[in-house]
Amino acid sequence: MTLLETLARGAGAIAAYAAVGVILMIVGFYVIDWATPGKLSEVIRTERNPNATLLTTSALAAVGLIVAASIWASGGRLAEGLAGTAVFGLVGIVVQTVAMLVFDKIVGISVRDLVKENELQPGARLLAVTHVAIGLITAVAVI
C-alpha cells in the first residue's frame, strides 16, 4: 500500500469515527434535553444556566470517552469499530439517563429542579461527576 493510500484510508476512518461520535453526542444532547425542563439549548444559551451547562458538558465528555475507547478497542477493524462505537455509545447514554433517574428517585437529586436554579448547585456537580464516571466505566469495559 502506498503512502497516499494509507493516508486516504486513515483519513476516511477518522471521518467515519468522527461522524459516529458527533451523532452520538447529538443523541446524548437530546436525551438530556428530554430529561430537563424547557429547551436545553435555550436554557444554556439564553438563561446561561450553569447547572444545565455542567450536566450537558459532563454527559458529552462521557460519550467522548466511550467513543475514544471504542476506537482504541477496534484494533484497526473499521466496520467492527464503527458498529461497536455506535452500540457502546448508545449504551453509555442509556446508563447515564438511568443514573440520573436513580439519583432523582433514591437520592432525591432532581435534574429538573437543578436546571431551574440560576446558581451552580452541589447536586449538579455530583451528577456531573457521575456522568464522567459512567463514561470511564463504560470506556474501560469496552477496552
List keywords for this structure.
DUF350, transmembrane helix, 143 residues, cell membrane, mainly alpha, transmembrane
Return the structural class.
Answer: mainly alpha
User: β content, as a range?
Assistant: under 5%
Q: What low-confidence regions span 5 or more consecutive residues with pLDDT below 50?
A: none
Total domain modules: 1
What is the average per-residue confidence, as pLDDT, rounded to a whole number? 90
Helix-strand string:
HHHHHH
Tell me the span between the first and last alpha carbons: 29 Å
- Count of helices? 6
What's the gyration radius in Å? 17 Å
Estimate the helix proportion, in percent: over 70%
Largest sheet: none
Assign an overall shape: elongated
Strand segment count: 0
In brief:
The chain has 143 residues and is mainly α. It has one domain.
Model description:
- The protein is an all-alpha fold and 143 residues long.
- The protein has one domain.
- The protein has helices at 3-35, 40-45, 50-73, 78-107, 111-114, 122-142.
- Helix 1 (3-35) packs antiparallel against helix 3 (50-73).
- The two termini are 29 Å apart.
- The mean pLDDT is 90.
Layout: helices, strands, pairs:
Blueprint: H1 3-35, H2 40-45, H3 50-73, H4 78-107, H5 111-114, H6 122-142
